[in-house]
Amino acid sequence: MSSPRRQAARAPPKSSPEINRPDLQSENLESSLLRLVNDHQNTAIRLREHTEKSKKQAIKSASRVSDLLVEAVNGGVEECFVNEKRIEVEIRALKATIMRFSKQTDQWLASTHAINNAIKEIGDFENWMKTMELDCKSITAAISNIHQS
């Protein structure tokens, strides 16, 4: 192994700036590493903030889309509900009209039957009158024949 003297003989004597130089290098290296760590942390924080902001915007947009879809669907449902109520009102009105027409039709049928019966009776009376007239003519003819003979 080499003695300390030989090493001293081989290496040039160190001046005072060279003595501090390894310390400077280690300080520079340490400060560079600290700067890199800080830069990384700052970048990670900015990225996290950007991610959080984007997440909030995405949630807000999704919520808005959801609200619009619900409004669109509810609008159709509301329109159907209004139409259903309108149809129900019309059905009730038509039912009342049908009942009124049914009663009126029954009254007309009763009146028509009464008129038919009256006409039949008139027809029967006419037939009776014709029969009576023929009977009277035959009796008159028979009496006339008896009286002339």
UniProtKB/TrEMBL annotation:
Region described as Disordered: 1-25
InterPro entries per UniProt: BLOC1S1
GO biological process, one term: endosomal transport
Any single GO CC term annotated in Swiss-Prot or TrEMBL for this entry: BLOC-1 complex
Family stated for the protein in its record: Belongs to the BLOC1S1 family.
Protein name per Swiss-Prot or TrEMBL: Biogenesis of lysosome-related organelles complex 1 subunit 1
Organism phylogeny: Eukaryota, Viridiplantae, Streptophyta, Embryophyta, Tracheophyta
